[in-house]
Design a protein that fits this description.
Layout lengths: L3 H9 L7 H11 L4 E4 L6 H16 L2 E5 L3 H17 L4 E4 L5 H11 L3 E4 L1 H9 L8 E6 L11 H10 L5 E6 L4 H4 L1 H5 L4 E4 L8 E7 L5 H8 L7 E5 L2 H11 L6 E3 L6 H12 L5 E5 H4 L9 E4 L6 H8 L9 E7 L1 H11 L4 E3 L1 E3 L2 E3 L15 H10 L1
Parallel strand pairs: 1-6, 1-7, 2-4, 2-5, 3-4, 5-6, 8-13, 8-14, 9-11, 9-12, 10-11, 12-13
Antiparallel strand pairs: 15-16
Helix pairs in contact: 2-3, 3-4
Length: 387
Amino acid sequence: MYLKEIREVLNDEKKARPTLIQERTYDALKNGESIVGLAKTGTGKTLAYGLPILERAREIGGLAVILEPTSELAVQTKNVLLPYVKALGLKSIALVGAGNRNRQMEQLKKEKPSILIATPGRLFDFISAKKINYQDIKALVIDEADDILEFAKLDLLSALGQNLSSDAQIVLFGASESSITKNCETIFERSFFLIDVRSEQKLAVKHYFLQVSNEYKIQFLQRLTKLDKFKGLIFFSSNESQMRFARIVAHTKMRFAILNNEMDKTVQKNILTSFQKGKVNLLFVTDLIARGLDLSEVTYVVNFEIPDDANTYLHRSGRTGRMNNAGYVVNLGDDHDFRKLKKMIAPVEVKQVYFKGYQLVTEKPLQKAKDKKVVSMSETKKKGKKE
């Protein structure tokens, strides 16, 4: 499995042992089959589709296009695959809406890459401008297929697939089923193999629920950050709520940073570097910015605001427990939130937990712990004004 050049890079990156989705999809992808690959988040899907696609690109030539929903994810995918691209003597570029269009056109013309990692808007733009020819595309990978329709119209994706040559390979990868994966044969007018390993994958992620009213969420968050080996992402449903709570947390001693899609890319990069180096152990994030994150050693995902659908929850929880490392998802909310959550993500088990000092336990303490006075958000605001 894998060419010698690929195996050498895998050994260097300590990824020599293939994950389940990588093992199951390799032969079909290397043979040019069109497939739907479904696997849980954080189980090596990028290399699962990327490596055989790269090997095949060197073997048969032509262009392989990897479609990503966001610029951040496209750049991340390019960086993940780059050592393998170089090892095989290939070239790759990223075509993203956030980049300079003219510069990308010049790069495409000059480098004549074998691999394009693109966002939908920029790819369709270059095809319309006749900078990319349908018939040159030998493989089309739609990554994050369960999210792609938020960023690209179905009729455009359908037209893209149907305009490829009949022997071109179309690959869909995702963490959950969606309308595009369920109806792929109708949409793209060709046969697909389904390779679904989700039920066979056992991730070391535990899902917890902490019952707390909105007024005391900040105080609970402070206690969470003092848990052993805490390194966490705190999810908010919007930039507005993210910034509102960040202003409150600024009056505490928590080592946190804010990350959202409205920030300059350089600022984002610096924040991520600080997080990776441990200068901050808490990142306030939103769903949009988190789609492009692949951070190692995230031990906790905290849903400060519980999402409205299971797919969003799945993608949030996939930021921890990656590549079989231990991880915890902690949900903050009231009785109603707990009932909603259990129903939404069933059959995933969610355990209610409680604080016992600065530990989380599944048994409710018989008596109140003698901790410091609980400080509510309103009191924190007052304290901040005095200071």
